[in-house]
Amino acid sequence: MTPIAELERALEERRSMEMNLQRKRAELDLRMSHATQEIGRLEKRIEDVQQEMDALRERDERTGEQEHELMRLQQQLTVLSQQRADLERESEELECMRQTLKSTAGGDGGTGIDRELLLAALDDDAANEIYAEGARRYARRLAERVRDGEFDGD
After folding, report:
1. Residue 100, exposed/middle/buried by CB under 10 A (0-12, 13-18, 19+)?
2. What confidence tier does 14 reach under pLDDT thresholds 50, 70, 90?
């Protein structure tokens, strides 16, 4: 082979290699372009997922706050219900005592304590408590008799 033919062949090989390199560069550029686009889509998706997570966290925080508020309100409702039940019982006792005192027309209310003696000792807390306890017992007995139909108020 002549030196010119060798140079032509070497030149042809070089052109072929350059064309292969250009083709490979074009393929790499295309792949890089696709990769860049895919990275952009992934970044957008990551941002969307992050926003969803933030929204879920915020909702969970509100839900947690709402659950805490609901528990607090349920506890408050329980306390208020208990207080209402206590007041209803006390109201029933007071009504029985009122009816008892009304029916005895100023007597001792079945306590066995002289009314004047009790009034004279009004400042004495013990006398007041004894009178109140006797009135409560009498009222309960009277209420039981009324419930059982043994007493009609006359």
Report:
1. buried
2. very high
Residue 120 CB burial class (10 angstroms; 0-12, 13-18, ≥19): exposed
- For position 43, what pLDDT does the model report? 92
Q: What is this structure's pTM? A: 0.39
Number of domains in the chain: 1
Specify the DSSP class assigned to residue 121.
T
Contact 10, 18 (CB under 8 A): no
Contact 97, 84 (CB under 8 A): no
Assigned domain for 68 exists: yes
Q: Which tokens in the block code for residue 6?
A: 């060798």
